[in-house]
Design a protein that fits this description.
Elements lengths: L3 E3 L6 H10 L4 E4 L14 H14 L4 E4 L11 H20 L4 E4 L9 H18 L5 E5 L12 H8 L8 E4 L2 H6 L7 H12 L1
Parallel strand pairs: 1-2, 2-3, 3-4, 4-5, 5-6
């Protein structure tokens, strides 16, 4: 088991390795760009070479990229949906440039859509993104706290999405314990944690 933090990218990507080392990280998570906006700058090739060299030297692995907060693959609005899929595709590309193993994403908020409609859109969007960006980066679906119309606060909901894909080597799960606790999973006692993890595994 490797331990680490979500590390700030403020200033430059190179500084993230320094910050991670200062915090004794064995693994780390970052955003590849501003998490609260749609616009982004290209990742300069020379800076990326230096970043990858520094990351390799540090031994920090795996590096994880978290998708920004705005994309919503369960959106009923066509423009927002298409923009969200494109955003996922972009971060899958950026993750490869950063030598990141995975991209973490929240499945989305269904708003006025039915549960089935929302699941269909998320599955369609993931499928398109993974086909468009056919690299070695794995996509991790993160469980949510279940606030409002957030999808996938139950572990079984994540399974609904994952069962639709034959290429399981491109999909995984990010288990967020704070989200799980907020969603009603009792993680206050070892016995309850074991029960929750048994459900998660199944």
């Amino acid at each position: 088991m490797r331990f680490g933090f979500h590390v700030s990218i403020s200033g430059s990507m190179i500084k993230t390795v320094e910050r991670a080392e200062e915090r004794k990280c064995e693994t780390a998570q970052i955003f590849s760009r501003n998490p609260r906006g749609w616009s982004f700058n290209e990742l300069p090739a020379e800076e990326m070479r230096t970043f990858r060299n520094e990351l390799h030297r540090s031994g920090i692995s795996p590096l994880i990229v978290h998708l920004p907060y705005l994309p919503n693959l369960a959106a009923g609005d066509t423009d927002l949906y298409e923009r969200s899929v494109e955003s996922l595709e972009e971060d899958l590309r950026r993750a490869e440039m950063l030598s990141a193993a995975c991209v973490v994403m929240h499945p989305g908020r269904r708003g006025g859509l039915s549960i089935k409609e929302a699941f269909d859109k998320v599955i369609e969007g993931i499928d398109k993104a993974l086909r468009t960006v056919n690299n070695g980066v794995k996509l991790l679906l993160e469980n949510t706290a279940g606030q409002g119309s957030e999808m996938c606060h139950r572990f079984s909901d994540l399974a609904v999405i994952m069962r639709q894909f034959k290429r399981q080597n491109r999909l995984g799960v990010c288990l967020d314990t704070a989200h799980a606790f907020a969603a009603g999973y009792d993680l206050s006692q070892k016995r309850r944690v074991d029960e929750a993890l048994d459900e998660f595994e199944s």
